Amino acid sequence: MLDVHAPAFPVERGQRLGNEEYLRDFRARDAVIRNSDSWKLERLQHFEEVGSPSRDALRRGDWTTALRLFEEGRDNLRAIQTDEEARGSVFHRVRVVEQPLTPYVQWELHSLRISAEYGERVRILPAKAVAAAEVDKLLPELTIQDGKVLFRVLYTDTGVPDGAIRFTDPDVVDSWAAYVRSAYAAAEDIASYFDRVVAPLPPPPAA
Fold first, then answer.
1. Which domains does the chain have, with CATH numbers?
2. Which phi and psi angles does 178 have, rounded to 5°?
3. pTM of the model as a whole
4. Cβ atoms of 96 and 44 closer than 8 Å
5. Consecutive sets of 10 residues in the chain, 207 residues long: mean pLDDT of each?
């Protein structure tokens, strides 16, 4: 279990962004990062992603196609990593997982395993490790860019993207960056987790 309790989110110190505004801002900021790391904390166990043929295949229960489409995306992942290496940027992701794995998380971990092969730093943290921080509510979904901007990413109750709250207050960004780094240090590399937990699983049901 992590020793560090999660910081607070003073909503009044952030700026609410709609989904399209958030995506534009995130992409613009990401493109200019140089020689700095970014961090992502992912907690929900189900998302309704839009525009992903592989996600659509999972929704239909077509597991073979879902995995095939991941494999066909390797060239794109390679190009992303080449760009990040040229900019001196490293992306770290902490993925909190519950047992048993939901169909979505099982599907996502196949994707993240491939992303890790091309340089994304992905680690897996069991939900029990963050139990002390979730007495009242689950940890948030968030991304920290360049140590300067934090996006608390929002979703509807059914997992549909719903924009974000952007924070640039150093106190908020720094406290959450420290928490995510602690979570990352306590987590397991996806390669060993995948081989031990995910690879033996049968195909999940449609979800």
1. 13-198 (3.30.870.10)
2. -65, -40
3. 0.95
4. no
5. 77 96 96 94 95 96 98 94 92 97 98 96 96 91 97 95 97 96 96 98 97
